[in-house]
Amino acid sequence: MKLRFQSTIAAVLLMAILPASPTAHGAGKKRKSAPPAAVVPTSGKRVLAIAPVERVRIEMPDNTIRDFGDDFLARLRTRFTQANEFVVVDPEPEFAIQSGFRSHKAAPDGFEWESSPVPAATVRIDVDAMSFVTGARGGRMFYGFDDRMRNSFNDGSGNKLNEFPINTAETGQHQPSWFDGNFTPYGSKPFDSLSGLDLGDGFGLDILFAWLRVKYARYRAELKLVVDIQAPLANRNERRAVHVSGKGYFYDVAGGYAAWDGAIRIARRDAMLKAFNRAFEQASEHIRKTVGPLPLTARIDALSEDGRIFIATGRRAEIAAGTRYLSIEDPSLILLVRESFHAGSVASLEKGELSRLYPGMILREVSDKFPAPAPLSRMHLAAMDSESTRQLDGIIVDLPAENLPVPEFGGSVKKISRLRAFFKSLLETVFLPYRIWRYYQYDRSYKARSDASGDSIASEAQTRSVREWAEAARTETWARKIGITDKPLEQGRSPVVAIIDSGIDYNHPALHDALWLNPAPTRDLSGQLDRYGWDFISGDSRPNDDGYHGTRVASALLAIAPSARIMPLKVFNPWGVTSSAAILGAFEYAVSHGADLILCAWSTRRNSEALERGITLAGSKNIPVVAAAGDLGRDLRIAPSYPAAYAALHPNLIIVTAVDSLDRPLKFSNGHPAHVHLAAPGAAIRVAEPRRMETRASSTGIAAAIAAGALARLISGIPEGDAQDTHWRELLQQTAEPVAGLKAYSEGGLSLRVDR
Questions:
Q1: What pTM did the predictor assign?
Q2: List of residues 6+ apart from 367 with CB closer than 8 A
Q3: What superfamily would CATH give domain 462-751?
Q4: Which tens digits make up the pLDDT trace of 586-633?
């Protein structure tokens, strides 16, 4: 078929510049080679394929899900096209350039045709970490994922959503309430459990007054990428890590807003978007530099009967006339570009036999800048074989600190009255010294004495404190009731107990020397070592208790088992905020780091896949999980609580309710014999609190901690090699005593006894 031109004048001009050619493709006649021509300086745009950036769907601070893949891809495309160097296309399903490939596309009609360019390189980006951390000390929050904190609930796929959002229609309020008041702040202002948390960063006096609009809060954003560049036509197959981090301050919300928590989420969402977009911009620039120079590439789309060769050089690639291409399959075939159009270029055969050309043939620019391509078979393998990938030096970019502008709240947040603001400001000012002191008590590091070799050792006074705590507990009525009074303080090995909670005050004398120290800490991409657990809510290595609950239950456990070693895994912040990713991540950490026992001294009304998967994971290693029945005073058969509702499904799960020293159920204790395995003391138990404090507390969480302490004592007497085959629930129930008044609350009316 002869090519019809859109314009007679264009046809005449084109025929004038094209040399004579055979009238039919495939006639088998050898074309006379033209004399070697001087290399013509070439210009034009290279074709670059950029794969979609996947698995970057992140839960934002306002509980919405945002897919950052489109944002990142748009910036990459802009970065590569704005310099007029590249034509960006989507990658082909499979870039196969094997000999014998044939395409039977008809010759195009006119100067517009469906072209199929060949990428000079394909860029694929894997996001290893994408995190945003805001706030300081107790108010620090982690969003996104990194190498330490990544599972199916925050892996960027967005397939599984957080089961514990802060503000939903289900809760009907702006504060977390999934955990039955276990983490509710207590006390009277300004001496409550949250005193000083609102100070944030900076400590300028202006941020302490309620009527001001905003205050500064610290942020840090990190983006860690692995960039794969496959350019087989340039004999390149490379990989490079790119790490971009940025920090600064953004405008957080001061106390002058009535719905302060809603405004915080708006402010943090806005800051998160700006910080990530800034990181994307820098990462895109370094990816562009990594791609570097590439040859022009093309594919033969069609051959006309009059010898014109239509090649796919890239839409609007603007390939200059005189550019020469060679065939990858047969380098003796040389094509010369005569003219370029939007769809591609029109060329003629400069050297070789026309009969050997075919639609689909892969071409590459003739240039001394790039080495000759390898034979097809080896080149195809090089493109697909990861072992042949050349690892380039990583790039680390620390962006200059940038303070972000004031967010737009759009009238969605109302201010409090001026009168209320005046009294609030007055109160804050009067108690400012105390609040500043309290601020510095949050998020503290573990303080250990060191010998000359640098190894952590305990002082004699601290050692006595741990023992004295357990000895003092034995004088309590509840301790005599369960039979712990005349038992030795320590026996056998020291079991590791992972406490998934609000962290612990590991500097409290009653807990200090019971802290588990990681025998083989690992350093994450941010350089942090997990020496003694992890904070999954703040994303750092300090699982310090900024509330109170974790410290309370840890001290209750140590009152029974002072030889236990506590592995603190923090998943709740001072307000009780958590996430499915944090809960599952804590279970994964406990199992992988050798915990003998896991304590979840809380309950939730939320049927949680993350929680059940964590229990299942522990069960796969026969690790017992002790959990609270809940504190709503309900029949668990009628009003389910979790994890109690999973009791029949997981033999490693032990559910505990609370009784007083006379084995009477407490009025707030949940119970039912099908869901609770035994009762334990949980009324007015002396417990430790952060900042070297003590108090008395009552809850099924305290009861669960005491039962966990009893189980830890049993574990300490069993060799590690025999633990895998032990039925922990049955072992604990064997020493329990049936009580008639508890038959409606626990299985067989069982109440905890130690070594009965």
A1: 0.84
A2: 42, 295
A3: Peptidase S8/S53 domain (3.40.50.200)
A4: 999 999 999 999 999 999 999 999 999 999 999 999 999 999 999 999
